[in-house]
Amino acid sequence: MQCIPEVVVVAGERAVQGVSPDMLMEAMDAVTDGVVIVDTDSRIVYLNEAYTHILNVKKEKVLYRRMDEIEPGAVILDTLMDHKPRLHQFVEVRTRGKKILVNITPIFKEGVFCGAISVFKDITEITVVQRELEKTQRLSHSIFKALSTEKPSLPREFSHIIGEDPAFLRCLKMAEIVAPTDATVLIEGESGAGKEVFVQAIRSLSGKRSYPFVSMNCSAIPETLIESELFGYTSGSFTGASRGGKAGKFELADGGTIFLDEIGEMPLFMQSKLLRVLQSGEIQKIGSDKVQKVDVRVIAATNRNLKQMVEDGKFREDLYFRLNTFKIVIPPLRRRRKDILLLANHFLDIFSEKYHKHLSFSPGTAAVLQKSPWSGNVRQLESCVEYAVIVAGGSVILPEDLPDELLQGQSRDGYTAELPEKEQRAPSGQEQNVSPLRMDIQQIERERMREALEKAQGNKTKAMELLGISRRTFYKKYKLYGFSNDLYTK
């Protein structure tokens, strides 16, 4: 109906004498509120520039189209039905992922209903701030409740996590506090310190534990693919795109949790896009002009110093503060000396059962484990124990059963494990520095090896079977006691 623009112009001319229709339209484009006018068939006959900015849509995409096709649940359609105004109403534009405060007024010309005009404000950011405030209040309540407990105890969901170090226990308590909320969590710690263990522990107590959990390692995805991995793409959006498009990690995690590992490796251009998701909960697929709303809890982890990266210009400061809502810094294993043997014995039980053995650590081995630097943290300790369980020939794991790099690493890093005397072995040719008792023991071992080699006719494999020792131990003793490869070869 042509009466809609005429009504606007006439109203403007009556209000301000001498104002032309073009000037009036320019004025409407200058206001920050969105303005849209529809006729009685719900066809959009006018919209201003603010409308396109707020709803992130191009004017030519919606002008002269029917509102009941673009946004079937639009409140303005109710006004077209009953000709009544709607004032100060909070509305969610689902197709654009926006929340607006709207005033809708019916338009009459000479008593004839012509359509309706809607003037609205974008309150998405206000809603986000309010939601963040509610998160903070819930988190503060949880922290207060936890700190007011005289003897805090960890939940049974954390019972599988090994550690008694006070700093480590504080980290676990912080994880317990933040888990029931939906606050963003940043976990920092060296590689192998156990960040993934904390993520799963937090998830086990989260209200979203029954909903999707999606994980992505930011360092494992090429820069050219990371945006499509996170946000997805539409069909035909680029060469090689799958027919039908693809859902991104955030869409797959909707309603649940997404774990972004190695967040410090995320490219700068993607950091701004991630910040938008954290601020508004909106994603936009590659090749699409539609904004999609997602409800996802974000847990991020890194082995890098993000604060230093911010200072170096390698990480966005605003994203750092958004991720830093709740930070847990896991101490490295070398600062948890009380936990080393606890963890070692825990892994020993696991791998002894796996490889059908019954083993224990000798005092010398325990000393080596206790004093090692553990640059690879818990992950390195776990691998070390598994190796020792595999190569151990007896019922006791000796220092010589540990990986060579562990023993070599001690001297490099300034650590020295003093082994008990009965476990010391003198280098070949230096027996004069060894105590008489130990010399006797070494002479007996040398003689037993000689007898075994003779009985096996130089076959080393048979000799080690006769002695009941592992291949690694056999060759160490073979070299230690100076047996000639020329005499025993087969």
Automatic annotation (TrEMBL):
SMART domains: AAA. It comes from the Bacteria. CDD domains: AAA (cd00009), PAS (cd00130). Residues 20-72 form the PAS domain. One of its GO terms (biological process) is regulation of DNA-templated transcription. InterPro entries: AAA+_ATPase, AAA_lid_NorR, Homeodomain-like_sf, HTH_Fis, P-loop_NTPase, PAS, PAS-like_dom_sf, Sigma_54_int. One of its GO terms (molecular function) is ATP binding. Keywords: ATP-binding, Coiled coil, Nucleotide-binding, Transcription, Transcription regulation. Residues 161-390 form the Sigma-54 factor interaction domain. Residues 439-466 form a coiled coil. PANTHER family: PROPIONATE CATABOLISM OPERON REGULATORY PROTEIN (PTHR32071:SF81), TRANSCRIPTIONAL REGULATORY PROTEIN (PTHR32071). NCBIfam families: sensory_box. This is Sigma 54-interacting transcriptional regulator. It comes from Megasphaera hexanoica.
